[in-house]
Specification:
By secondary structure, the chain is of the alpha/beta class. Helices cover 18% and strands 21% of the residues. It has a 6-stranded parallel sheet with strand order 5-2-1-6-7-8, with helices on both faces. A two-stranded antiparallel sheet has the order 3-4. The model has no long low-confidence stretch (mean pLDDT 95).
Length: 220
C-alpha cells in the first residue's frame, strides 16, 4: 500500500460511513470480527473537520426479508441461493427495522452526519451498496438517491470506511466509482466478514478504479 500523503479538499469531499450498527459488531446478530476496533478512530475522524460532508448508510430490513436464511425453509445462514438470477448469501436475521441492532451505533457522534441513507428496505431484494439495491425481479438495481445527494452538495471525492469490507463497503465503493466519484477506501477503518477475501477484494476494488489508503495517509 502506498504511503503517500493524501491531500483533501474539504469542499469537494465526503466521509461515507457504511453500516455502523450494533448488529454488525460483537454481540450483534451478524458480528464482524474486530469491528469494535475501528469505532474510536472513526469517531475522531468524524469530528476532526478534516473531511467535508459526513454521510452514513444504514441497513434497514423489514421482517422476513429475502436475504434472511429464516425466510427460506431448510436453509442455513451463510448458504447461497439464486435470487433474481444472481447469487445471494443468506444471512441471520439482522438490522430489522426498529430493532436495537439496526440503530446507528451510539459510540459515534451522529450529530456530525448531514444525511443517513437507509438501504435493504425492499422485502424481495438485498442492498449491499449505499448507492443501489441489489438486483430485483426485473433485473434492475434501483438507485437509493445517494449519488444525486452528493452531487447536489458538490462532492467529487469519497472516503469510505465501515462494515463489512468484503460486502457493503466494497459494493458501495465500486458503485460510487461507477457513478463518477473519485473513491478511496480507508482500509484500516474497515473489517471483513471473511478475512481470506482481502486480496481478492483489494484487487477487485483497484480494477474498478477505487484507491486503497490507510488513515495515517490523511493530511493534517
Amino acid at each position: 500500500m502506498a504511503r503517500d500523503t493524501v491531500t483533501i479538499d474539504p469542499i469537494r469531499s465526503a466521509l461515507l460511513l457504511v453500516d455502523f450498527q450494533p448488529d454488525f459488531l460483537p454481540g450483534g446478530a451478524l458480528p464482524v470480527a474486530g469491528g469494535e476496533q475501528i469505532l474510536e478512530p472513526v469517531r475522531r475522524l468524524m469530528t476532526s473537520g478534516r473531511l467535508g460532508v459526513v454521510v452514513a448508510t444504514q441497513d434497514w430490513h423489514p421482517p422476513g426479508h429475502a436475504s434472511f436464511a429464516s425466510s427460506h425453509p431448510g436453509r442455513k445462514p451463510f448458504e447461497a441461493i439464486m435470487l433474481h438470477n444472481h447469487e445471494q448469501t443468506l444471512w441471520p436475521d439482522h438490522c430489522v427495522q426498529g430493532s436495537e441492532g439496526a440503530q446507528l451505533h451510539p459510540a459515534l457522534p451522529w450529530t456530525a452526519a448531514a444525511a443517513v441513507v437507509r438501504k435493504g428496505m425492499e422485502p424481495a431484494c438485498d442492498s449491499y451498496s449505499g448507492f443501489r439495491n441489489n438486483w430485483n425481479e426485473k433485473g434492475e438495481r434501483p438507485p437509493t438517491g445517494l449519488a444525486g445527494y452528493l452531487r447536489e452538495r458538490g462532492v467529487t471525492e469519497l472516503f469510505v470506511c465501515g462494515l463489512a469490507r468484503d460486502f457493503c463497503v466494497k459494493w458501495t465503493a465500486e458503485d460510487g466509482a461507477d457513478a463518477g466519484f473519485r473513491v478511496r477506501v480507508i482500509w484500516d477503518l474497515t473489517r471483513p466478514v471473511d478475512p481470506s477475501s482481502d486480496q481478492r477484494v483489494r484487487n477487485e476494488l483497484i480494477a474498478r478504479g477505487v484507491r486503497i489508503m490507510s488513515s495515517d495517509q490523511l493530511a493534517v
